[in-house]
Amino acid sequence: MSAEAGKADCELRRGMSALANVAATAPFAGLFGTTIGILDSFRGVGMSYSAVMSMIAGTIAEALATTALGMVVAVPAVWGLNYLNDRFEILRIEMSLARSEMVRYAEREAGERRKTS
Length: 117
Known about the structure:
Blueprint: H1 3-13, H2 16-48, H3 53-116
């Protein structure tokens, strides 16, 4: 790969790792929130010495909402990352083909100039 192609590669991939990190960690952030919420619910049950469902339902609902929010962030991030990776790969292949075509053209022109001189 030429230096110019390497620079183009780097420029095209700028920000992709941040998107990948968001896509990978968002579900875990949601799961962490769910775990904390459920722990809080059970702590409340332990303090009251009774398992009244209406008392813990709100806290569990909050915990599940946190998980849902993590998924709402993660799913589009993964889709976006996959889309951008596909577009980048297509562009990289097109650039490689164009570079090869330019090299063949330059070699052909150089060969014709040698024949005429």
